[in-house]
Specification:
Number of helices of chain B: 3
Helix content of chain A: over 70%
CATH architecture of the largest domain in chain B: Beta Complex
CATH architecture of chain A: Orthogonal Bundle
Order of helices and strands of chain B: HHEEHEEEEEE
Distance between the termini of chain A: 9 Å
Largest sheet of chain A: none
CATH topology of the largest domain in chain B: Ferric Hydroxamate Uptake Protein, Chain A, domain 1
Strand order of the largest sheet of chain B: 2-1-8-6-7
CATH class of the largest domain in chain B: Mainly Beta
Largest sheet of chain B: 5 strands, mixed
Number of helices of chain A: 7
Shape of chain A: globular
Oligomer: heterodimer
Shape of chain B: elongated
Structural class of chain B: alpha+beta
Largest interface: A-B, 25 and 17 residues
Number of domains of chain B: 2
């Protein structure tokens, strides 16, 4: 169980870091949040948080766009939201007997898409507030200015990724790591 | 399971997404609107701009419309084809209407003193000097700092 979790954290972190660099030219359109959420959803908040921290430790420090400790810290802290909420939602959605997500795919996709949007709003408000505080000396200005176009791109792309990707990826992980998914009694 | 299948939760989430997007967009466009309003609500003023090419040719752009708060640089760009470079001390005009800085020759700018009617050099940088209503300026191409004749 422990080794599966460690392997999952490593794979999800590698996927999020790799896709972040691959999508570097697409500002604020990244799969990282999605992978952190899925990690939390399938294996609990701790795995989600560790996936987010690991991803940001690498991507945040070796970032072609630049490095600023305050922003890095804020983004890493806000990224934990995806993992924690993923873990909480996962516990409520995966029944102890179930071997996966047993709801209508369409309904689940809509739910995940909107959840991705709401989490991204929260993430953007936190990180833009920090940016605004240090750069504009105004939290409100940072939050508002950061929304168009970058925040909007982030929110809409995450709605798309979460809506389209969550159901199939969670099902695949549940099948591969059967018995290790939190809440499951399977061995 | 109830979380996903409960239509009221889904509806609430949808409304939350909608209202947040609308609020942020409204905030952004309000900010843009107030910024534009701040920039264009200056009073309409008129200034006179002369350009002396140093070869006996002098042209005047009298009663050029401008908003209070704009700089001499902004007004000059309105009336002429200006080339410039930005250096350590700010913006430097290097050419006006294809007459460019060459050797010791360059563009100097002067303001007419409203009481004495004499030309006095403007000590402020061109992009820092804000024009006043009915002010008269002269761009003078020369290799010294002599006031225009």
């Amino acid at each position: 169980m422990k080794s599966v979790k460690i392997a999952t954290i490593a794979v999800l972190a590698a996927l999020s870091i790799g896709t972040n660099y691959a999508m570097i030219s697409l500002y604020n359109v990244k799969l990282m949040d999605f992978f952190v959420f899925v990690g939390g959803f399938c294996f609990g908040p701790a795995v989600g948080m560790l996936t987010g921290i690991t991803s940001w430790v690498v991507y945040g420090t070796l970032n072609p766009v630049g490095f600023d400790f305050r922003i890095w810290f804020a983004t890493m802290f806000a990224e934990l939201l995806y993992g924690v909420v993923g873990g909480i939602v996962g516990r409520n959605l995966i029944s102890k007997e179930a071997d996966g997500l047993k709801v209508k795919v369409g309904t689940a996709s809509v739910f995940f898409g909107m959840l991705g949007m709401l989490l991204t709003f929260a993430y953007d408000v936190i990180t833009n507030a920090v940016f605004g505080y240090f750069w504009y000396q105004s939290i409100i200005l940072g939050v508002i200015v950061g929304f168009v176009p970058f925040g909007l791109a982030h929110v809409l792309s995450n709605a798309f990724f979460f809506g389209l990707g969550c159901v199939p990826v969670i099902k695949v992980i549940n099948n591969l790591a059967r018995g290790s998914v939190h809440g499951s009694n399977h061995k | 399971m109830a979380l996903i299948t409960n239509k009221w939760i889904l509806l609430s989430m949808f409304l939350a997404c909608w209202s947040l997007t609308a609020t942020f967009l409204a905030g952004f466009y309000w900010l843009k609107y107030t910024d534009i309003v701040d920039r264009i609500t200056g009073a309409l003023i008129y200034v006179n701009v002369g350009i002396d090419y140093g070869n006996g040719t002098r042209e005047w752009h009298n009663d050029t419309k401008a908003f209070s708060g704009v700089t001499l640089f902004d007004v000059t760009k309105q009336v002429a084809n200006v080339t410039y470079q930005v250096g350590l001390y700010g913006t430097e005009v290097v050419g006006i209407n294809n007459v460019s800085k060459q050797g010791s020759f360059g563009w100097t700018y002067w303001a007419s003193n409203s009481t004495s009617r004499a030309w006095s050099i403007v000590w402020e940088n061109v992009d820092a000097h804000r024009v006043a209503a009915n002010e008269t300026f002269m761009w003078y191409y020369q290799n010294a700092f002599n006031p225009p004749q």
